[in-house]
Amino acid sequence: xKSRSLPTLSSILEVERKFCSLAVRELTANxxxxxxxxxxxxxxxxxxxxxxxxxxxxxxxxIWVRQRNGQWEAKIKKGGNFxxxxxxxISDPRDISRCVRDITGIDKMEEEQFGLQSIxxxxxxxxxxxxxxxxxxxxxTMDFGHTVGEVELQQQASFxxxxxxxIEQQKQNKMQEMxxxxxxxxxxxxxxxxxxxxxxxxxAYFERKTIEP
Length: 213
Known about the structure:
Strand order of the largest sheet: 1-5-4-3-2-6-7-8
Largest sheet: 8 strands, antiparallel, barrel
Distance between the termini: 74 Å
Helix content: 10-25%
Number of helices: 4
């Protein structure tokens, strides 16, 4: 007799912790004590982002819609704070359209930028590494000189729709577990990360725009 599979829902979850910059000149496996268990360079690439919103309705709801190198993405904040963030990521234009419609009431598809307006355009030089198999370390330098880094964990997670816990609570539990792993990782390798309060790309972008003549 074949066992019946339980109904599940799958999501891409991302948890990240920001840092100001690297505390070492070059990130290498043996650059500090203790050394990384493993470190693989992903090289560097240029990222071109265009962020969209409508009267700050999305950002004030914790949603960021962007075109990254021509591909649409939406990041939906699921908790944490600026430095320690938790997101659900969606990339299907139909899902993005539904998300925008639920928040703004605008029912448009990607051909019309989901009825949104461009609010920021920036280019980033990104250096990236994978440490200890799972942790992605990125260092971003914007075209106007600002630098910020992140340690990220991303996971495709499946959730059981028949459990007593809601899907949202299951997501929160999984992201809490991911965040705790990042915290332990950054504490173990504290020699790699410069201390201080990091400033995000968009925050630095808008501050720069404000003081420009």
